[in-house]
């Protein structure tokens, strides 16, 4: 019985871990860039990456930004990404366009550019 329980736990961990891995990285994106401009409506920064809810012409998009170290390396400071701040984001959208999700490679606050993924230039 203990062996069966252990096997089920391991199988469950493998399945849930696979779903998490599928979400991260770039596999879920289109491979091409688009540009969005809108107002930040909600912010959740932290690991594994930050998420912004951005109002783009009346539609809510989820914009993935980097991990805290990546955002800092790009020059973003605490408070830069805040509610009601206008942002322009360039990055790869989800392959399923109905998701309205973008993995940001570059952000602009005003005229200042922040390169989250300079290695992708």
Describe the structure.
The protein has a single domain, classed as OB fold (Dihydrolipoamide Acetyltransferase, E2P), CATH 2.40.50.1010. It starts with a helix and ends in a 6-residue tail after the last strand. 24% of the residues lie in helices and 36% in strands. Residues 4-9 and 11-23 have low confidence and may be disordered. It is α+β, with helices and mostly antiparallel strands and 121 residues long.
Top CATH class: Mainly Beta
CATH-defined fold name: OB fold (Dihydrolipoamide Acetyltransferase, E2P)
Structural class: alpha+beta
Task: Estimate what percentage of residues fall within beta strands.
Answer: 35-45%
- Globally, the shape reads globular
Q: Summarize the amount of helix as a percent range.
A: 10-25%
Low-pLDDT residue intervals, each spanning 5 or more residues: 4-9, 11-23
| CA distance, first residue to last residue | 54 Å
Q: How confident is the prediction overall: mean pLDDT?
A: 83
- Lateral arrangement of strands in the main beta sheet: 1-2-3-5-4
DSSP strand count: 6
